[in-house]
Design brief:
Order of helices and strands: EHEEEHEHEHEHEEHEHEH
Number of domains: 2
CATH topology of the largest domain: Rossmann fold
Shape: elongated
Helix content: 25-40%
CATH class of the largest domain: Alpha Beta
Amino acid sequence: MTAATVLSTKKISLPQKELLLNSGIGFVLYDAITIEILKFNLAESVVNGIFTSKNAVKAIIESEINISNCFCVGENTKRLLQNNGLKVVETAQNASDLAKKIIKGYKNEDFSFFCGNLRRNELPDLLAQNKITLKEQKVYKTHLNSKKFNRSFDGILFFSPSGVQSYVAENTIDQSVAFCIGNTTASEAKKYCDTIIVANKPTVENVIVQAVKYFNKK
């Protein structure tokens, strides 16, 4: 049987490549999106900051803003915050779950949401419905880096909704299996394909593990 080949819509590290190599799965790598850190000014210190991506954390680290309490999505985002000396008080696997934690435990607090230009609506909408004050600050911009592939892949690894949008701008998913980092990415992929597998944890490694499990079963 011919070995499966997957496309990763994000360049991955050597240990992550080895997960695929050791399982006999071929792979092609490219960055479906590029991130531009924006310049912004926040004079005052921030009491409660919300982060739904590592890109927002990187922008804040560069700006050296003082944030007392951080609320974030994903273990990798949490780790990046903590590694830079920031205190994380709540973490969730997705933005909706984080909003629910904030509504339940911090209803009388004010928040600053550090986000990108393509941020999704779930978290700000839920907080607005519950009359929680949210100040939004765009700190990075996502650029789609679309590329035409004159071939098909057994699987495609997607790490963000914008990564899906970038890929389908020049290609079709067709019969490929879409392996997605989370439910918001999966929701976008569902517009273009039928077979979708969502990672158990929102990490690059877990997306790769799901692909390895799937193709090694076949």
